[in-house]
Amino acid sequence: MRFLFAAAVLLFSPLMFAANLVGVAAPEFSLPDQSNEVRTLNDFKGKWLVLYFYPKDNTPGCTTEAKNFSRDYDKFKALNAEIVGVSLDDVESHQDFAKTIGIPFPLLADTEEKAAKAYDVLGGMGPIKYTKRQTFVINPEGFVVKHYESVNADEHSAQVLTDLQAM
């Protein structure tokens, strides 16, 4: 019985003690986008940043979420906000995804899982890895002010926009 308890604690402890980034400086990143241009956190200083992680290009939920952020992109820009999507997909996959649905904002290729680990959104089991569907709102000074751990792809863009308008 003790063995089962110990195994459960080890298995679920990352979930219980996940990093809470709200109120702290956002972790740095340096990743290529779909145009193979390297983007860093500093590129967005002075603006609000909606940094959203999603599991996989060209999948139903991720496509819905990207389409909705694309639809609302001008509204975010009017609030001095930029949108950036991040997944473990490579640059070529992001190029195809962005072109297929007309995404007007950067999609970052985190193929080495660095940003996913820094933001504590790396999921999967064994060799199958993905980024969890989570979003961070980073203020113009570079601090995380909001973390969405549970995201509904259909409603998420509208929710983030509403919350950003209130900040």
UniProtKB/TrEMBL annotation:
Q: Which CDD domains match?
A: PRX_BCP
* Known EC number: 1.11.1.24
Which keywords annotate this record? Antioxidant, Disulfide bond, Oxidoreductase, Peroxidase, Redox-active center, Signal
Q: Which GO terms describe its cellular component?
A: cytoplasm
UniProt catalytic activity: a hydroperoxide + [thioredoxin]-dithiol = an alcohol + [thioredoxin]-disulfide + H2O
Summarizing the function annotation, the protein's role is: Thiol-specific peroxidase that catalyzes the reduction of hydrogen peroxide and organic hydroperoxides to water and alcohols, respectively. Plays a role in cell protection against oxidative stress by detoxifying peroxides and as sensor of hydrogen peroxide-mediated signaling events.
Its protein name is: thioredoxin-dependent peroxiredoxin
Q: What is the lineage of its organism?
A: Bacteria, Pseudomonadati, Pseudomonadota, Gammaproteobacteria, Pseudomonadales
